[in-house]
């Protein structure tokens, strides 16, 4: 890799960390124009930057507003680089169906988890908010997802999470699909009770958990 | 037959001046569980002041807790300002779409008129009825959503989060107009004989940084609480999730009592701000109150007492946040019974 290229990827990563959406787009165009590999620019530039942003979030240097702005910069770059991916480099990523359980429309936490998972090698299918339990299972079966990720910020809607696991069992899919849960009122204790495969308190933890669940990391 | 020797008002009075009383104050924060108490659909409480009042009155009488709060959901001011609220038949209402799609339309916002807009008049009517019926024995409060959280219902939570960095001035405008609404509603709540009970979910350090809290939320909280204090009314402030980095700021707001989520360690809170404010908390609403056994509830109450029974400004044993609607009655009773068992002066042998 040439020095120039390395430098550009570094600046791309910095643009993401520094929440500079316009700059991230410009640098992405520059990468395309000078014939750099789009996949590398995504991985070593945008994704590396988002991963640093995630670390800052975990260290409580960044909060939700900063992380959202970083992701805006990442997506601005992705939009430009994605059409230039040589082969379908993103095709074989493990699939995760994500959404907020029925009765809850607080999707800010879910969106953060989605951003972090998307920038960590997963393909995310976002069902949105206020999703009935069966819809998660339907979608996971349809696209052959490895994980269902559920979130809620409301204590009033947690029962829907147990319901998803129940439906998976009824349809004989429980062994095929892992279930990870998160959100303000959720605890490890709750995850254990409903028989979820994992719980994470935050977006960075969700990435580690998802990797573990699909066997990408020990 | 009454459940306790003291009424809540007598209990608070004795606690405040160190006279003998029967047990620590205890507040399982009842939300729409009150609908279950009188066997109606959650949505009915939003359409019928008499039912909303009856639900709260009957719930208080059933369990005998120490603060009654007239509450349906956090969105009533936002709704009164034009936010669209989805009202499921038998679950808590939630925000469907914020008032504004585009911050450029900010000039279209008007403060809520509590006597006319949305279901604010219904809430006020329910408050009046509850105060009339049980106000002589128990403090009755009316739920009031704080300016920063309400601002998120005006433009949406994520757009608001981005505006903090992109257009701080717009955020201040959203908070300012939310404050105007909150003050008008607070005045009306106080007129009914209730005290506003403040909730500010979005101000949590789980969402925004302590610096952002100080710039965008704290000034409006202070103004709101000062205003309420000017009536001689004392305020409880609840912020969900993580709050440790802003405890001292929360104490600076003028609130006399801070209601902390189960994320908080009450012994730390006691060390940090216990000289300045009463603490309220923090039995986990979901893991323990919704799903725990009776014994787990009992132990969780003891754990709270162990950490903060000797808080200089006092303790209210409470759930960390509003209880899930389907919290079993038996667990709510177990919570009250645990506090009764602890008694006062506190039976320290139960805490070891």
Characteristic key phrases:
heterodimer; A: 218 residues; alpha/beta; 5-stranded parallel β-sheet; B: alpha/beta; 8-stranded parallel β-sheet; 10 strands
Report on the structure:
The complex is a heterodimer of chains A (218) and B (352). Chain A has 218 residues and is α/β, with parallel strands linked by helices. Chain A is built from nine helices and five strands; from the N terminus they run H-H-H-H-E-H-E-H-E-H-E-H-E-H. A five-stranded parallel sheet of chain A has the order 2-1-3-4-5, with helices on both faces. In chain A, strand 1, helix 5 (108-118) and strand 2 form a beta-alpha-beta unit. In chain A, helix 3 (38-58) packs antiparallel against helix 4 (64-81). Chain B is of the alpha/beta class. Chain B has helices at 8-16, 33-37, 49-63, 76-80, 120-134, 147-155, 157-166, 168-191, 210-229, 247-252, 266-273, 285-290, 294-308, 329-342, and strands spanning 26-27, 68-70, 84-86, 94-97, 140-145, 195-199, 236-239, 257-260, 278-283, 315-319. In chain B, the strands form two sheets. In chain B, strands 1-10-9-8-7-6-5-2 form an eight-stranded parallel sheet. In chain B, helix 6 (147-155) packs across helix 7 (157-166) and helix 6 packs across helix 8 (168-191). Chain B is globular. The model of chain B has no long low-confidence stretch (mean pLDDT 96). Classes of the chains: A alpha/beta (218), B alpha/beta (352).
Tell me the layout of helices and strands.
The complex is a heterodimer of chains A (about 220) and B (about 350).
Chain A: H1 3-17, H2 21-33, H3 38-58, H4 64-81, E1 95-101, H5 108-118, E2 123-131, H6 133-143, E3 147-151, H7 159-170, E4 178-182, H8 188-194, E5 198-200, H9 203-213
Parallel strand pairs in A: 1-2, 1-3, 3-4, 4-5
Helix pairs in contact in A: 1-2, 1-3, 1-4, 2-4, 3-4, 5-9, 6-7
Chain B: H1 8-16, E1 26-27, H2 33-37, H3 49-63, E2 68-70, H4 76-80, E3 84-86, E4 94-97, H5 120-134, E5 140-145, H6 147-155, H7 157-166, H8 168-191, E6 195-199, H9 210-229, E7 236-239, H10 247-252, E8 257-260, H11 266-273, E9 278-283, H12 285-290, H13 294-308, E10 315-319, H14 329-342
Parallel strand pairs in B: 1-10, 2-5, 5-6, 6-7, 7-8, 8-9, 9-10
Antiparallel strand pairs in B: 3-4
Helix pairs in contact in B: 3-5, 6-7, 6-8, 7-8, 8-9, 11-13, 13-14
């Amino acid at each position: 890799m040439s020095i120039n290229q390395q430098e550009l990827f570094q600046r791309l990563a910095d643009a993401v960390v520094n929440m500079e959406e316009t700059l991230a787009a410009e640098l992405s165009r520059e990468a395309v124009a000078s014939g750099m590999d789009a996949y590398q620019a995504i991985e070593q530039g945008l994704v590396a930057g988002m991963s640093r942003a995630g670390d800052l979030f975990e260290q409580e240097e960044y909060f939700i507003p900063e992380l959202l702005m970083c992701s805006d910069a990442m997506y601005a770059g992705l939009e430009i680089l994605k059409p230039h991916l040589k082969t379908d480099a993103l095709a074989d990523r493990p699939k995760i169906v994500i959404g907020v359980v029925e009765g809850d429309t607080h999707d800010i936490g879910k969106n953060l988890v989605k951003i972090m998972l998307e920038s960590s090698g997963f393909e995310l299918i976002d069902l949105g908010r206020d999703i009935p339990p069966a819809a998660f299972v339907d979608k996971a079966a349809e696209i052959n997802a490895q994980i269902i990720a559920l979130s809620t910020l409301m204590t009033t809607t947690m029962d829907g999470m147990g319901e998803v696991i129940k439906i998976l069992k009824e349809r004989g899919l429980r062994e095929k699909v892992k279930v990870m849960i998160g959100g303000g009122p959720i605890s490890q204790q709750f995850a254990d009770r409903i028989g979820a495969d994992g719980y994470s308190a935050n977006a960075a933890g969700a990435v580690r958990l998802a990797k573990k669940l699909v066997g990408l990391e020990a | 037959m009454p459940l306790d020797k003291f009424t809540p008002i007598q209990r608070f009075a004795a606690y405040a001046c160190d006279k003998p009383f029967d047990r620590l104050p205890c507040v399982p924060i009842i939300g729409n569980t009150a609908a279950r108490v009188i066997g109606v659909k959650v949505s009915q409480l939003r359409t019928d002041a008499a039912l909303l009042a009856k639900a709260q009155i009957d719930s208080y009488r059933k369990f005998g807790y120490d603060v009654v709060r007239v509450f349906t959901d956090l969105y009533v001011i936002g709704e009164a300002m034009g936010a669209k609220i989805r009202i499921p038949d038998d679950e808590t209402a939630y925000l469907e779409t914020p008032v504004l799609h585009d911050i450029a339309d900010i000039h279209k916002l008007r403060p809520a008129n509590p006597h006319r807009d949305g279901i604010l008049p219904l809430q006020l009517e329910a408050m009046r009825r509850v105060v009339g019926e049980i106000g002589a024995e128990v403090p009755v409060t009316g739920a009031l959503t704080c300016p920063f959280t309400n601002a998120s219902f005006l433009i949406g939570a994520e757009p608001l989060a981005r505006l903090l960095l992109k257009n701080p001035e717009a955020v201040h405008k959203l908070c300012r107009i939310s404050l105007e609404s909150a003050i008008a509603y607070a005045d009306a709540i106080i007129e009914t004989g209730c005290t506003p009970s403040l909730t500010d979910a979005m101000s949590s350090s789980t969402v925004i940084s302590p610096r952002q809290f100080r710039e965008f939320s704290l000034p409006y909280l202070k103004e709101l609480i000062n205003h309420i204090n000017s009536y001689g009314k004392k305020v409880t402030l609840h912020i969900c999730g993580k709050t440790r980095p802003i405890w001292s700021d929360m104490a600076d707001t003028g609130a006399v009592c801070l209601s902390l989520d189960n994320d908080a360690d009450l012994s730390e809170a006691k060390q940090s701000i216990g000289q300045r404010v009463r603490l309220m908390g923090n039995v986990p609403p979901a893991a323990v109150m919704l799903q725990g056994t009776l014994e787990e509830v009992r132990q969780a109450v003891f754990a709270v007492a162990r950490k903060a029974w000797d808080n200089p400004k006092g303790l209210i044993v409470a759930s960390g946040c509003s209880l899930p609607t389907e919290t079993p009655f038996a667990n709510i009773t177990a919570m009250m019974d645990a506090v009764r068992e602890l008694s006062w002066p506190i039976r320290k042998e139960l805490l070891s």
